[in-house]
Amino acid sequence: MALLGKWIWRLGTDKGGLWKEILVSKYGGWRSLREEGKVGRGSLWWKDLKEVWASEGWGRSFEDGFEWEVGEGRAILFREDNWLSCGALKSVFPRIFSLSVTKGAKVAELGNWFDGVWVRKDRVGEVSPVYSKLWRCKVLPSALVTAWRVMENKIATRVNLERRGVVVENLVCGLCGKVEESSCHLFSVCEFTWRVWCLCFEWLGVSFVIHKDPLVNFQQFRLCSASDVVNDVWGAIWVGVVSGIWRHRNSVTFDRGVVDALEVFALVHVNVWSWIFAKSCCNSFTYPNWVLNPVDCMRLVV
Ligand SMILES: [Zn+2]
Questions:
Q1: Among 6, 9, 63, 128, which residue's Cβ finds the most Cβ atoms within 10 Å?
Q2: Tens digit of pLDDT for each residue in 88-114?
Q3: 214 C-alpha to center of ligand 1: Å?
Q4: What pLDDT, on the 0 to 100 scale, is given for residue 68?
Q5: 232 shares its domain with 139
Q6: Is residue 242 within 8 Å of 147, Cβ to Cβ?
Q7: Signed CA dihedral, 25, 28, 33, 36: sign only
Q8: pTM given for the model
Q9: Which band of pLDDT confidence, cut at 50, 70 and 90, is reported for residue 202?
Q10: Which of residues 81, 99, 117 is at a domain's end?
């Protein structure tokens, strides 16, 4: 039995090999061991492997003993395999699984990894161009993730927390104290946020209309006639504003910080300049240059 167990282990861990390809092709490979039912015309050896798996505790021991190495996600089933610490998504969300039209899809077929963050592909199977633009921005990964969460409406605003079933005593915005704290409100139309955006527009020498949907707002926050490199800096400024607002909101909400639009604006100056400096190795302008004339400085970024 131990020898048969070793074959099961090799079936789950070996990277390749003709013998494994044949088994996967003929019987479905390692996953089919846990499927109940008769093997039919399977070989005696395969029937023995299935018996070992079904023996009391053996199959469970194998499943618990394995840790999935996702890699590019080309070998792991997104919903059926236990590649997350919470268990197979099929079991955790049975209702969603029953409605899913992507049963049997691999992790790589449904999304891509960007800087350690897995991002879902859109319905035509490609990463949305708007997110491609976001990932190109040379910013701190934590700020990038915050911006992505805002665009996906996954950020933990009070309205989103309540939607997830968290008991929230007060839904009112932590910055203006007047309107429910949704993503659209907090990052686009809150009167505090509006002051921060206006300071940025004045600094950049542009007039701009803010769309209430942060994702559309990001798409529109660029210069049509400028190069991709310059627009990547604009994207970094957008990320700087959004992540700065979120940080300020948390400071006011949890650390009794004082609401101050100028403080957020000053942080945008510092953060974006330091990101450009660190990620582009750009030393052709100084911080005072950047504060006084950002548009000219952007043209020096390579
Ligand atoms: Zn507000």
A1: 128
A2: 788 888 888 887 767 777 887 777 665
A3: 15
A4: 66
A5: yes
A6: yes
A7: negative
A8: 0.62
A9: very high
A10: 99
Residue 220 alpha carbon to ligand 1 centre in Å: 22
How far is ligand 1, taken at its centre, from the CA of residue 185, in Å?
A: 6
Residue 42 has pLDDT above 70, yes or no: no
Output the six-digit token pair for 144. Answer: 């990038």
Q: How far is the CA of 219 from the centre of ligand 1 (A)?
A: 22
Report the separation in Å between the CA atom of 260 and the middle of ligand 1, taken as the mean of its atom positions: 13
For residue 260, is it within any domain? yes
Q: What is the pLDDT of residue 124?
A: 45
pLDDT of residue 173: 95
Query: Domain span at residue 94?
Result: 2-99
Provide mean pLDDT across the span 231-240: 94
Whole-number Å distance, alpha carbon 157 to ligand 1 midpoint, is 11
Based on the domain organization, do 8 and 142 belong to the same domain? no
48-51: list long-range contacts, CB under 8 Å, 24+ apart.
48/4, 49/4, 49/7, 49/8, 49/11
